[in-house]
Amino acid sequence: MEHHVALRDGHRLPILGFGLYKVPASQAEDVVTEGLAFGYRLVDSAEFYANEAQAGRGLARSGVERDDITVTSKFWGEDSQAPEAVRAAFDASERALGRIDLYLIHWPRPSRNQYVDVWRTLIELRDAGRVRSIGVANFSADQITRLGEETGELPVLNQIELHPYLQQAELRDFHAEHGIVTQAWSPLGRGHLLSDPTIVAIAGAHGVSPAQVVIRWHLQLGTAAVPKSVNAERLRSNADIFSFDLTAAEMAAIGELERGQHFGTAPTDRQ
């Protein structure tokens, strides 16, 4: 299986990364150095996570060539979505991380009706050479369509809550039609999937962990994923998913687990 996915802007993205959501600042530096040592080459961070300075120290300490790593950050935008607020947030994240390769709008916050203007500012940052690629998180197909209609630019990626209990098939199809990469946050359903009988049985058949089965399902589905763990052994295990394949029957069985169930915040609840 290819370890990277092509972005619509000509760049490539590791199909598997690790996230820093809810990683305590006191642990973030070690988590980053451990993750990179285990072979991950995508670090998913965000202004809201309040651990980017520590993540930046981990990047510097890792010994991995910086050009071999993709670092994501995200604009939070709760206080203001004005262009100067976007630029100030980007500047702060850039100082903390050293460089940002992929910058996302964290939430559309539709009731404010400003996400198109935020997107224009991301385009300006990219065109100025400040960031390589730009995308969104938690956007609907209609919101992405509006970005394209009003700016002529579609995001390279939409990061969404996605796991076997929330498979987002319609949105994934929209992404595929428009050359947008689907990247899953909370790909393990915040741990709720790991005791599912179907997942446990498939894991037993392959001699792997339930988490490895779910991550492998994501990759065979064609989606990128950013699982998170502060436990070094689980972080290592989550990266070891390229040595086995799920059968068509196993993929179909996991496909039957769809419940439409969110474990994180639904986009309509973040305004």
TrEMBL record:
InterPro entries for the chain: AKR, Aldo/ket_reductase_CS, NAD(P)_OxRdtase_dom_sf, NADP_OxRdtase_dom
Gene3D superfamilies found in the cross-reference section: NADP-dependent oxidoreductase domain
Highest rank taxon of the organism: Bacteria
Molecular functions (GO terms): oxidoreductase activity, acting on the CH-OH group of donors, NAD or NADP as acceptor
Pfam families for this protein: Aldo_ket_red
Keyword terms of this UniProt record: NADP, Oxidoreductase
Keyword NADP: yes
Acetylation listed as a keyword: no
Chain sites annotated for binding substrate: 106
Signal peptide boundaries: none
UniProt-annotated catalytic positions: 49 (proton donor)
Site (Lowers pKa of active site Tyr): 74
Residue span(s) of domain NADP-dependent oxidoreductase: 22-257
PROSITE patterns for this protein: ALDOKETO_REDUCTASE_1, ALDOKETO_REDUCTASE_3
Entry similarity comment: Belongs to the aldo/keto reductase family.
Database matches in PANTHER family: 2,5-DIKETO-D-GLUCONIC ACID REDUCTASE, NADP-DEPENDENT OXIDOREDUCTASE DOMAIN-CONTAINING PROTEIN
Stated name of the protein: 2,5-diketo-D-gluconate reductase A
Organism encoding this protein: Bowdeniella nasicola
